[in-house]
Amino acid sequence: xxxxxLYKAPxxxxxxxxxxxxxxxxxxxxxxxxxxxxxxxxxxxxxxxVNALNSEFFHSYRTDFGLYLSDTDNAQDxxxxxxxxxxxxxxxxxxxxxxxDLADLNSALMHTIMYLLHKKNxxxxxxxxxxxxxxxxxxxxxxxxxx
Length: 147
Hints:
Blueprint: E1 2-6, H1 19-32, E2 37-41, H2 45-49, E3 63-68, E4 85-86, E5 93-99, H3 105-118, E6 124-125, E7 131-134, E8 139-146
Antiparallel strand pairs: 1-3, 1-4, 2-3, 2-7, 5-8, 6-8, 7-8
C-alpha cells in the first residue's frame, strides 16, 4: 500500500470517496499503477468501537489514505510525493463486508463485528487496521484476521 496519514476521522475528511478528491491526491500515481485501488486504513476504529481508549488526550482519529496495490504493480521504483509512504502489510485472511456509501461505514463495521462474535470460527481479529477499498460499484470493508 501507498499511504498518507491524516489526523481526522474519515467522516471529517471533506471529499473522501469523491473521484475529484482522489484524482487530486493520487492521479499521477494511479496513472503508473493501473491496477491499484483507492483505500483508507483505519487504525483507531476498532479501539473506538470497544471503548479501549477512554482518555480523549490519547485518543486521536487517524485515517491513512492512499492506494492498495495489486500483486502485479510494483511501486518500488516510483518516487512518492512527500506525504506518502510505502507500507508492506502481511498476508491476511479478511472478514469482508460490502456497502454503498462511506456514511454506512459504522453500520458495516458493527455488522461484521457482530457476525464474527457469533460465529464459531478459528479466525480472530488480528489488530491490524481495518481497510476500506473503493471498488467499481461499492465499498468493501476488510477486517484482518488471524488463525
